[in-house]
């Protein structure tokens, strides 16, 4: 079957990575391998290391990257383990991270990510992980549910939704995605149900983020990535919602910051030097959003590893 999927901000990512045919690159979120294909086909003697926590993505990539497998290494791992994955590698020339849930996961009803299809509550990106959305929804305390919905979903009706979940599970466990959708809707005012955005979108996002530990892994991953880049190496990160974008923005700014001593200190005593130089963020064009509505909220942040002589 011909592979036609075009990933978000593809041309912008390829340009940002400034790919050298002999370079070494990392795709830390392999997904459908759309970005990886474009990187791999530009390499000659170079190498591409592809990482994904979803074993289904790894297996599918063997076919999609078949013409370039002589230069590709597939790794079933979480990007939170980036340091150990790259421990034996020399410094690399570029890294790409396309954050959030991938299209295959969203499009497969059985994975339990979608609030549009009925399926067992799962939401695990890595199916070997012990924590499912079903276990979370039926075991978290009222306070934990409220915190997750508010912090990770920015859900203004978090207290009411959390209470509705607890009340419902006291009668019987919440087993499926559409059961959870109905519980969420029952806790929301009629005006909220008439909004353009699906009433369960924020809650499903919050539970997915918590189940997969998505945000916790971001700062250490970005620091490990910056450490492993060679001078002049390029880092590209695509975010899809405000929470992860703020975290990526904050961490990259910390990596780009030099001396943190108080302004009244006569000399620097912290010894901190900037590690990267930041570029302006990029968003999809109107044409891309029209072709792929899922790209609407995407934002690409890029940085370049500084040479010690640039500091």
Question: Would you give an account of this structure?
Answer:
The protein is α/β, with parallel strands linked by helices. Helices cover about 40% and strands about 15% of the residues. It contains 14 helices and 7 strands. Strand 2, helix 3 and strand 3 form a beta-alpha-beta unit. It is globular, with a radius of gyration of 21 Å. The model has no long low-confidence stretch (mean pLDDT about 95).
Brief rundown of the structure:
With 311 residues, the protein is α/β, with parallel strands linked by helices.
List the defining traits of the structure above.
globular; alpha/beta; 7-stranded mixed β-sheet; 7 strands; 14 helices; 311 residues; 14% strand
* N-C termini distance: 50 Å
Q: Mind telling me the C-alpha Rg?
A: 21 Å
Largest beta-sheet characterization: 7 strands, mixed
Structural class: alpha/beta
Q: Which percent range fits the helix content?
A: 40-55%
Which strands sit side by side, in order, in the main sheet? Answer: 3-2-1-4-5-7-6
Order of helices and strands: HEHEHEHEHHHHHHHHEHEHE
Molecular shape: globular
Low-confidence stretches: none
- Summed up, the helix count is 14
* Mean of all residue-level pLDDT scores: 93
